[in-house]
Amino acid sequence: PESHTGYSYEDCRATADWLLAQTAVRPVVGIVCGSGLGGLADMLKDQVVFNYRDIPNFPQSTVHGHAGRLVFGTLKGRPCVCMQGRFHLYEGYPIQKITLPMRIFKLLGVETVILTNAAGGLNQDFKVGDIMIIKDHLNMPGFAGNNPLIGPNDERFGVRFPCMSDAYDRELQQLAMDVGIELGYGDFLREGVYCVLGGPSFETIAECRMLHKLGADAVGMSTVHEVIVARHCGMRVFALSLITNRAVMDYDSEEKANHEEVLETGKQRAEQLERMVSTMVTRIGHN
Ligand code: NOS
What we know:
Blueprint: H1 9-20, E1 29-33, H2 39-42, E2 45-51, E3 69-75, E4 78-84, H3 95-98, H4 100-108, E5 112-121, E6 131-139, H5 140-143, H6 170-182, E7 189-196, H7 205-213, E8 218-220, H8 224-232, E9 236-246, H9 259-283
Parallel strand pairs: 1-4, 1-5, 5-9, 6-7, 7-8
Antiparallel strand pairs: 2-3, 3-4, 5-8, 6-9
The structure holds inosine.
């Protein structure tokens, strides 16, 4: 159908081959850095860096806190590729474009994807600075017909109706918990359900209350679309949220959600988050 704004398998192959021709790194782990969490990419050794604007078919990063670079390199010897800056629905990109990098990851040879994001805490036990291991998601845009897999299905990527009950790899969740506790992060390590909204306006009080009642522990504007596409093409997925702010749930609260606070919290926890993810990467088993 004409309304389909996706990229063909051949488009994705062309982009992947363009990248592979310019770096000797053959990444097995792909990492996506959330708002204010781009420092993860700086940990890679022997970097080969591409600006998004130079990569065929790639969108551009438009959000403050997202550098817009694809970084290849090794993390303690493990070949990785890292998106320093991701794409969101609210930037105005078609949903297939936001998730294109996942298919490029797949065609680069990536087996495991690690996604990070900044999110508002709905769970009243959560504090700013908590790291939440994502165990499941609520795809609100999906309820309204905005799913990245809408359009013709190419079986070379995956099946028409992919299963999502196993989207977040249990073994990787356990690994994250083990690594986090080992590093002494037990006090601020949580697990929970991430809910995605379209944004860019933050949630109203009534919306936060509703999402909490529906079982969401954290709310944000990313990650879920990428997870769906990554699972569709058979990559293992691990995702975590940094709770950068508390969702406002009371009419007498003085708090107001703002992007500055989100970036500031990211800065404060960045080092620990980076250490956790990099330690995980060295322990992920691949064949
Ligand atoms: N983000 C949030 N999105 C929704 N609600 C929140 O409370 C929240 N906190 C952080 C905005 O600052 C950026 O950070 C995430 C969103 O995904 C958005 O990209």
